[in-house]
Write a structure and sequence with these properties.
alpha/beta, about 15% strand, disordered N terminus, disordered C terminus, binds iron/sulfur cluster
Amino acid sequence: MDVTSLNERAPACADKYRNSTSKWTVAAVEELYALPFNDLIYRAQAIHRDHFDANAVQLSTLLSIKTGGCPEDCGYCPQAARYHTDVDNEALMSVGEVVAAARCAREKGATRFCMGAAWRGPKQRDLERVIDMVKAVRGLGMETCATLGMLKPGQAQQLKAAGLDYYNHNIDTAPEFYGEIIRTRTQDDRLGTLDQVREAGLHVCCGGIVGMGESRRTRAGLIAQLANMDPYPESVPINNLVQVEGTPLHGTEPLDPFEFVRTIACARITMPRAVVRLSAGRQDMSEGIQALCFLAGANSIFYGEKLLTTGNPEVEKDAALFARLGLRPMESENAGSNR
Ligand code: SF4
């Protein structure tokens, strides 16, 4: 379909923001959420086509390099030591183990390898091992991403010098809801690390979680906060809460799947050049809802059988879904620029 004609026919809502430097208000994002579903998806798809190949999806593999025993109290997370879940406290993996996993992910088609550690922040001696991992994974020709918690001054620069491409640090939810979910740190602590990551010249991967019992206004607040970052993140993971027994959020009323699709669409419209990642919660989503998420502008997925400690659709199932939808993996150089 001709992109120009598609844009000309797209609904007018929020046009005033598209080429403007003005900030997104929470009310403006709520207006997007409130559009008729078809209008919202049409708008998001039109903007998606302005900036990306609409049929290409970036594939990342996420490996938990240090699982469990985390001192933080994130209400959704089975890795917090204080919650009684079946996640055990494991030691930091060896460089060799991580390289073997990265090689395997590359063989299955992943172009980016994300390494996650359940820490409040890395100790210097642990960071040094992660730096060796980053160098080795880079040596395989893959993009690298790390999520290690809050960084102390100088640590982001060390990761950058090792060749790290992206640092993931989610703001989780809107500021007014943050204290309901996490009490061992503030959202300002997170923003401080994000500043350091930017200053070091790393690409920012930053998103949040929905389905935690928040209101639509809170979801709109999360999207507005991400979109108003200057610049907004190159990579925006949108997670749907995976409920794990033993965590405080287990038993939360599940989010309407169409509301999740709306959230993807709002992220796409407000952050047109970001790679929007359909992240945690995909295993519980029907293929139909996943297809709607791609239509709404999601263009990255975690690929592989495990997502930190919770399940993720198997590689073969994803490959079959891609074939049915005519999707193909995105070349890494096309991914993630918002400038
Ligand atoms: S989300 Fe991260 S910081 Fe929070 S408890 Fe889990 S591992 Fe720790």
